[in-house]
Design a protein that fits this description.
Radius of gyration: 21 Å
Order of helices and strands: EEEEEEEEEEEEEEEEEEHEEEEE
Structural class: mainly beta
Largest sheet: 6 strands, mixed
Low-confidence stretches: 1-22
Length: 365
């Protein structure tokens, strides 16, 4: 059969279909998967302004500017809320449920070397939503049906997208600090009710967020008080290119650590992945067939969105430029059961500028 090869280098598209607030998932149309493709992910250069979501079976990408949203509200049966780790947001639960009490900023509530993961200021980077805090599950506790149990949170809003131009091979993801907010989230039937304000304010704004099961999350901007279109429908993307707040080993514990050039998989929509290591990538990648797929190897990715993560590239250093790792490729299984092999071709453009990743992939039959 003749293969169809598509190259994606078009400008960012913003998904505009989150206005349907009913909680009944609409079945996605089933189309024959694209057989192969070369993708230039529209990350946007060394400031990496975009979160990019790629659907392998359709060979399509959709992107959203990463500092346009703050909170994501899970649309399943649980009432869980994520924060925007792509801009280094962090939150701390306070011992009050009075949103109108004046609060002060706390510099320790941040992403960085001095912030232990066990403090629970950021979301579990595996993507696991459930947990009892202390770095497991969402940084914001599950929203309780008992109103009095839902506390106020101090919110470090992180950083705007950077605008400075770094040296070739470097990145500049952080721009101006986005300031602080306080929030309190409660439930009303199957909806989330969000109260939010500036720290010194003695009044607050309120917005209601309804669940929409067509998507993994509904996203909110605390700056505008409006919902924001970010991700495609739940089963219409597989990979996300993004800046990412991760955990990094530190003695017997771990710290919060920010990565550029990070890739997550859509664990909520059912995408799975594993890595194949090789000493001869050209030969082994070409020879890899569907019969070579090891189903058991997908298991870890069911509960961890970081299997690709930063494993695909070398970050560079004082005496070396960033580069892709040519000793590995990846096997990806989407929600419809299509299985692809994927290898990375570039991390930078011809001028050596980061934030210009390219990969190729092929459907295994």
């Amino acid at each position: 059969m003749k293969k169809s090869v598509f190259i994606l280098s078009f400008a960012s598209l913003i998904l505009g279909s989150c206005s349907d607030d009913n909680n009944t998932a609409t079945p996605d149309p089933v189309k024959p998967p694209v057989e192969s493709g070369i993708v230039k992910a529209n990350v946007g250069g060394p400031n990496q302004p975009n979160q990019v979501f790629v659907d392998l079976s359709a060979n399509q990408q959709i992107s959203a500017k990463r500092d346009t949203w703050d909170l994501g509200f899970a649309t399943g049966s649980d009432f869980r809320v994520i924060i925007n780790g792509s801009v280094k947001m962090a939150v701390k639960q306070l011992d009050t449920n009075n949103i109108d009490a004046v609060q002060t900023a706390d510099a320790s509530v941040a992403v960085g070397y001095s912030t232990l993961s066990t403090l629970g200021y950021v979301d579990d980077p595996t993507g696991t939503l459930k947990g009892n805090g202390s770095g497991v599950g969402t940084a914001i506790a599950e929203i309780s049906a008992t109103d009095a149990d839902n506390k106020v949170y101090l919110v470090n809003m992180g950083f705007e997208v950077g605008t400075t131009t770094p040296a070739a091979g470097s990145v500049a993801l952080d721009g101006e600090a986005r300031g602080w907010k306080k929030i309190r989230i409660t439930r009303n039937a199957n909806d989330y009710v969000v109260q939010y304000a500036d720290l010194a304010s003695t009044t607050h704004n309120t917005v209601t967020i309804s669940k929409n099961a067509d998507y993994n999350f509904t996203f909110l901007s605390l700056k505008t008080g409006q919902k924001v279109d970010v991700q495609p429908r739940a089963k219409q993307w597989d990979l996300s290119f993004t800046g990412f707040t991760n955990y990094y080993p530190y003695g017997d514990s771990s710290i919060t650590y920010y990565f550029a050039d990070f890739i997550t998989t859509n664990v909520y929509g059912g995408t799975k992945v594993y890595m194949v290591e090789t000493e001869s990538i050209d030969t082994d990648y070409a020879a890899f067939k569907k019969a070579n797929v090891q189903e058991a190897s997908f298991a870890k990715s069911v509960t961890d969105q970081r299997i690709i993560g930063d494993t695909w590239r070398n970050g560079g250093g004082p005496s070396s430029q960033p580069s892709i790792k040519d000793t590995r490729f990846y096997i990806i299984k989407d929600a419809d059961g299509n299985i692809f092999k994927l290898r990375f071709r570039a991390l930078t453009n011809d001028a050596g500028e980061r934030g210009n990743p390219v990969f190729e992939y092929e459907l295994l039959k």
